[in-house]
Amino acid sequence: MALAARPWRLLPVGCSAARGLRLPAGAAGSRGQRVPWRLGASEVMGNSGTFKRSLLFSALSYLGFETYQVISQAVLVHAAAKVFKIEEVLEQADYLYESGETEKLYQLLTQYKESEDAELLWRLARASRDVAQLRGTSEEEKKFLVYEALEYAKRALEKNESSFAAHKWYAICISDVGDYEGIKAKIANAYIIKEHFEKAIELNPKDATSIHLMGIWCYTFAEMPWYQRRIAKVLFATPPSSTYEEALGYFHRAEQVDPNFYSKNLLLLGKTYLKLHNKKLAAFWLTKAKDYPAHTEEDKQIQTEAAQLLTGFSDKN
Questions:
Q1: Distance between CA atoms of 139 and 192, rounded to whole angstroms?
Q2: Which of 164, 200, 232, 274 is the most interior residue, by most CB within 10 Å?
Q3: Contact 42, 35 (CB under 8 A)
Q4: How many Cα atoms occupy the beta-carbon half-sphere of 97 within 13 Å?
């Protein structure tokens, strides 16, 4: 990588040591004019201490500027190397994520948990959450990871409010934390969650996952139990609400943006059609979810749920 050009010069163009050296008034004369570099022996001996100090000062100044120049170049090289390293880590992280290597991904990214890079931080939030969802993760570890994920997502958003992924994962992590903080907090957080999902969609309307998550938000409040609705009405003048039709619209929109991008979107299309009593379309989407290639633990769980729901169809028929 080419180094940046030097931002300053030590001397003006055309100036050289041969043109003279400005000395203190006592040495240069009463007017303080510029005197020739080649002084006579009597002139030097007349104020040798002042001359030597001036010469020493000039030499040190030159060395100081040279040192500054070297340090500046070193800083630029270090900054460039740091950026390159982050890019390299992000490439490794994305490869591990696509490969379903959840634990390896988490181990890689936690080495850089003090990073100030938003792209790295939201990926770390995602990795923490994915580890929390593994079957082998204890309840105590899961709670720790859920709150840890929220902290990383919050930092990512603070570093870059224009990152759609930071908004998305911040909303996801707030939702996860709600499971530990009671129904009141969960309902209160619903407005914040919706706001960040909408912002993520605004920043990147081609991100199918953000659209899918808005669908989940709508689905969740469409199927909210009556007792939770009552609590919501007591706590809030206008509690969050939605319909299955709204949820279905988001799930279909996500599928249009990126067909077959996520097994859960297929499952929820099937489940939403079930809620709307359309068994034919429900069976179509549930079959797609069941046959979806399992790359993650979540994919396997979705395959199982879709198969069970389809079995329920067969039993009733």
A1: 26
A2: 200
A3: no
A4: 18
**Residue 316 amino acid letter:** K
Look up tokens 């206008």; give the residue: 238
Helix, strand or coil, per DSSP, at residue 262: coil
Question: Given CA atoms 293, 299, 304, 306 in this order, what sign does their dihedral have?
Answer: negative
The residue behind tokens 């992590």 is: 173
Distance in angstroms (rounded) separating the CA atoms of residues 311 and 291: 14
The tokens describing 295, both together, are 């790359």
Q: Are 269 and 245 in contact (CB under 8 A)?
A: no
Reduce the DSSP state of residue 21 to 3 states and report it: strand
Letter for the amino acid at 272?
T
Q: Is the dihedral of CA 222, 224, 230, 235 positive or negative?
A: negative
In sequence order, the 6+-apart residues with CB closer than 8 A to the CB of 36 are 20
Looking at per-residue pLDDT, the higher value among 82 and 156 belongs to 156
Q: How far apart are CA 171 and CA 190, in angstroms?
A: 9
What span, in angstroms and rounded, lies between the C-alpha atoms of 125 and 106?
9
| Eight-class DSSP state of 17 | G
Contact 247, 219 (CB under 8 A): yes
| Residue 140 pLDDT exceeds 70 | yes
Map tokens 């030590």 to a residue.
10
pLDDT bucket at 143, cuts 50 / 70 / 90: very high
Write out pLDDT tens, residues 172-218: 999 999 999 988 888 889 999 999 999 999 999 999 999 999 999 99
- pTM reported for the whole predicted model: 0.69
Say how many CA atoms lie within 13 Å of 42 toward its Cβ: 0
Contact 218, 246 (CB under 8 A): yes
Number of CB atoms found within 10 A of residue 249's CB: 16
Q: What is the mean pLDDT of the chain?
A: 79
**Contact predicate 232/211, CB 8 Å:** no
